[in-house]
Please model this.
Amino acid sequence: MSRNSEVLRVKGLFAYYDVGGLSVRAVDGVDLSVGQGEIFGLAGESGCGKTTLMRVIYRDITPPLRFLSGEVRLRVRDGEEVDLYKLDQQSLMKIRTKVISYIPQGSMSVMNPTSRIKNQFLEIFQKYGRVNKEEVLRQVKEKLQELGLSERVLNSYPHQLSGGMRQRTVISLATILNPSLVLADEPTSALDVVYQRGVVELIQKIREMYRTSFILVSHDMGLHYQATDRIAIMYAGKIVETGRTEDVFKKPLHPYSEGLINSIPRIGGLKQLEGLAGLPPNLVNPPAGCRFHPRCPYRMEKCSIEEPPVFRVGDRTVACWLLER
Amino acid sequence: MQHDNVLEIRDLVKVYKSGGIVFGKKFKAVDNVSMTLSNSPEIFTIVGESGCGKTTLARMVLGLIEPTSGSIRILGRDIWKLSAGERYRWLPKHVQPVFQNPFESFNPLRKVSTYLIHTAKKVAGVEDDGEAAEIVSKALEEVRLPPEVADRTAFELSGGQVQRLSIARALISRPRLIVADEPVSMIDASLRMGILNIFKRLKEERGISFVYITHDLATAYYISDRIAVMYKGSFVEAGEADAIFREPLHPYTQLLIESIPRIDKKWVGKAPVYTTDIEAYLAAGCKFADRCPFAMEKCRRESPPLIRLSNGVSVACWLYEKPSE
Model:
């Protein structure tokens, strides 16, 4: 991916939770980049820091979360880049929803229950000044039509919609101003399999029509395989592997990615799987060296002493000493 | 007694009311379900989407909800014909639950050992302290938990460990049947296999039968001997797990299996769009007819019976109706 097609570039990001005099190192040195029109998957198990990373990228920092250092460079207009952490509050508010949009986990169940969907659309536009209601609703209808959603939802209240419909409505709300990047945290995890597919289709359609980029956070590896172009695997506050989704699933290079992928039963496949031994570490006091070494089947002496750097293998990155030449 | 079926359910129905007392509608959350688990241990899985009635069915088997009609026999005894006191004393000795959220199963303030010894005395009827302690340590060993966990509270343990603990708790009364309702859906992917492997081992080594309730077809494939697919209160297809995954017959089973986010094959075609509401529970004919691509006129008029095919699979669909003699 060439540099000028990048929408987001994250460098050296650190953010900790301060709890009772201790620091939980939830985001501990993260680098990543997302290209234009790319669906970028962020995978990992509960407590690995996925959601925190999304909040930090959105600059949604409220105590006990504390931002330490790093850059979140976002492309605003062609060529022009801003670092979200160098902006004043006013410019930050302008960028949110318009350029970068965030769908937190469980959004579909926190829509205002007493307001019709159309008013929730209007509110977004009203944030940016006075608007002509009819004109805005016409635009919204047009957009829903393009996305293949029924405009009937506009007159409904959230509780009148099924889970799948509500989630698709939330996604269209988040993308109504054509942001260049959408952060979607577990958008399908509360839905049944049949509805999950509908949500993924909508995300792919938005990407195709408007070249919108997505970061899709999910613990479900199957969803990543189905929906994403590239994927990053996160473990204990760090990204351990990135690469094209297809390649990572075909041949995971980091032992954690390998363990994660091999612990998913395949229909028609083996009926004796072991999963990974041990437990994810405590982020207050993570293991020295590589954080995965206590659970790693390939660990060497070095792994418990020195933290592995990020090795490049073609267009992939892997933080594991096995890749050292 | 030894030759009785472990579980025999006949024509089980549970009616719920929705809406007001006067104008409310009644709907069947569980509609005419029958199934038998014989004397030889097996894992019988009930799969379906949220709201299909699978949890209601489980709770009736556990003696927690009274059926509207039909019977549930456990080791030959009709549990809903027992007096409440007798059911309370007798049932937990033979049938034990494992629930979805293990943290809700344990009192956060009590030590694990206090909890388990209490269970041994109350449920299994052990009087001697030493004997109770021995039963507890054996149960912990069965689920591969280190003996040290006995001195902690459940909240000091990880999700995977607490779920192992709730299985250990279930084992104390040496039950013949364990009803596990979504036992791994809150557990991280890399740890799930470890829990499911315990079920398999208990079946083989301890002769315990399982009713495994899940929405996740991949784990259903991994663990089941037989499965039943539930849709809006009824079984639409039931039989050997391998046969059903190899060649799903009911259009709903086909849709479910096609929708699994697999990690080895991409989805084909477009996701179907539909809504679910209570109306479908009330429909006269097949409840799947409004979503079914093969729906015929008859399907809307008349509800299909379970038709038993030559390979042992039963399917409730008019497509498989045998020509009348």
In short: The longest strand of chain B covers residues 25-37. The mean pLDDT of chain B is 89. Chain B is about 35% helix and 20% strand. Chain B touches chain A at residues 49-50, 158-161, 188-194, 197, 215, 217-219, 221-222, 245-246, 255-257, 259-264, 266-267, 270-273, 275-277 (CB under 8 Å).
